[in-house]
Amino acid sequence: MANYYTDNRDLRFHLTHPLMQRIIELREHNYAEKDRFDYAPFSYEDAIDSYDKVLEIIGEICGDIVAPNAESVDAEGPRVVDNSVVYARGTQENLDALRKAGLMGITLPRRYGGLNLSIVPYSMAADIVSRADAGFVNIWGLQDCAETINEFADEDQKERFLTRVCNGETCAMDLTEPDAGSDLQAVQLKATQKPDGSWTLNGVKRFITNGDGNIALVLARSEEGTTDGRGLSMFIYDRKSNAVKIRRIEHKLGIIGSPTCELAFKDAPAELVGSRRLGLIKYVMALMNGARLGIGAQSVGISEAAYREALAYARERRQFGKAIIRFPAVYEILANMKAKLDAARTLLYETCRFVDIYKTLEHISAERTLTPEERAEMKSYQKLADFFTPLLKGMASEYCNQAAYDAIQIHGGSGFTKDYPVERIYRDARITSIYEGTTQLQVVAAIRGVTTGAYLKHIREVYEPAELRPELEEWRNILKEMTAEYETAVATVTEVKDSEYLDFHARRLVEMAGNIIMGYLLVLDAQRDAHYTRSAKIFIKHGQADNRSKKQYIDAFSPEELELMTQD
User: Fold this and answer.
1) E strand or H helix at 265, and its extent?
2) How far apart (Å, rounded) are the C-alpha atoms in residues 341 and 10?
3) Do 210 and 140 form a contact (C-beta atoms < 8 A)?
4) SS3 content of the chain, % helix, strand, coil (to 5)
5) Distance from CA of residue 92 to its chain's centroid?
6) Could you tell me if residue 426 is inside a domain?
């Protein structure tokens, strides 16, 4: 029997990070529910033990059911029958197993039937599921839409919809339209309020992941005469009404088991969530931040799958009298894959911890007044979450694509056939740097962390002064040099006072910051466990060369030369 949690020591390492004690104490309100629910923890150790057990169950289901089903699901795919999506046989089997184990709605409050898990173990579950089948996580993982309902809906809506999610119903977020992709301000799906106060929806949505989900969050234009984001509101659509026609399931390159639908709304009944006009400005922003964290976890899970397949093949495949893993050209690729995997994973869980603290304090603030110290803590972690989330999504998804590419390269011609899983993994990986905001859009969000000095401040104030063993000091010194180079590069670009020039170099600057941040996180991981020293050294050496190259390019490229890049 395979277990995708217990066979991966990195997951428990991040689960027991020192900051988890603070997260769990906040999440559990100092263990106030221990007398009300027999499965609520009574201490930090008990909570970690509970998290362990949940993740072990998920790991077992993924190893024994989800992963073995992945190839057949990819071949069969979903279909539309009588205006409903029918999943592939393996997908339905996966869902049934997770439902039976009570693993739907796992982050939701216990009063609705959830497990009240924090974002860290939930993201670990997504990491595990993605390793088994990246397409399936887009069905199971969309339960995080329920977090938006929990955050912004009224109590009656929470009681009706969140209990259904915890009982196993699936979710969807209906945002994109044929003429409104990344530009959600252009959404035109019309929401009309009837005289009795109820709402109906009319229009078309496209590229909707798990579009036949039981409970959908829909972004729609509620204010007549508006053309921007201020005229949009958020609605809950209940699939039980059967008022939406599924026009088609898209034929995709990868993640085939996940149905991506085009939907036609015709007088579809819906419920307003929260206040009018805040659909995009407030609610979708919260929804998308969660989704981008989810794609970060999905990217790491795919990278894990790609690395393991490549490693196993390289150990078994023999050429010229020895296993190919003995050749420098191969073991270099594998070493870099592992270093980038460890880097992306440590950035993922650092970001999750930031989100966990600020989101939990935000929930607490709805129940009682926060102390001045708690309010300052919430604001601090919220800023960090806002800057780290696009950095994570952008860099983890790019690393994921590179890992899948390298895995096929190590397999050689065999990797180009359907005889090995890497062919499917390669196709599944491609979407991660596109949906929920392309890498280019993540850079647009992350560049604020560069221009405001937020990344530099956190590096200098938190990572740089951290206590390290003497043998790690060399790597701190390299990271300090990289930080100085980065600071100079930022000044070179921002002093020009040209927004187009800044946009042109934005990705370079963001990636320079990312290399330093992930380098420090790996060194800090190595401080806790020497196992990570190897990845830290490999990653920092590559980061040092990469940052130096980027700085040289910035220094050599003047604003006047932008016209060399423009296309007619």
Assistant:
1) strand 260-273
2) 10
3) no
4) 65, 10, 25
5) 24
6) no
Strand pairing report for 232-238 and 244-249: unpaired
Q: Which two tokens stand for residue 336?
A: 């870099």
Determine the structural domain holding residue 509 and report its residue range: 439-564
Is there a single domain that holds both residue 259 and residue 311?
no
In this predicted structure, what is the pLDDT of residue 446? Answer: 98
Count of structural domains within the chain: 4
**In this structure, are 443 and 391 located in the same domain?**
no
Of 117, 138, 169, which residue constitutes the final position of a domain? 169
Say whether both 138 and 54 belong to one domain: yes
Residue 190 placed within a domain? yes
Contact 201, 190 (CB under 8 A): yes
Q: Residue 540 contacts by C-beta under 8 Å, 6 or more apart in sequence? A: 475, 478, 479, 519, 522, 523
Distance of CA 377 to the CA centre of its chain: 23
- Three-class SS of 172-232: EEECCECCECCCHHHCCCEEEECCCCCEEEEEEEEEEECCCCCEEEEEEECCCCCCCHHHE
What pLDDT sits at residue 478? Answer: 98
Q: What CATH number did the domain enclosing 387 receive? A: 1.20.140.10
> Of 169, 202, 230, which residue is a domain's last?
169
Which residues, given as ranges, of the chain have pLDDT below 70?
none
- The pLDDT tens digits of the residues spanning 131-151 come to 999 999 999 999 889 999 999
Output the pLDDT for position 144.
Answer: 83
Q: Are 482 and 395 within one domain?
A: no
Query: Could you tell me if residue 35 is inside a domain?
Result: yes
- Catalytic residue IDs: 436
**Phi, psi of 36, deg, nearest 5:** -90, -35
Name the 3-class secondary structure at 29.
coil
Q: How far is CA 328 from the centre of its chain?
A: 33
Same structural domain, 49 and 154: yes
Q: Is residue 193 part of a domain?
A: yes
Predicted pLDDT of residue 36: 96
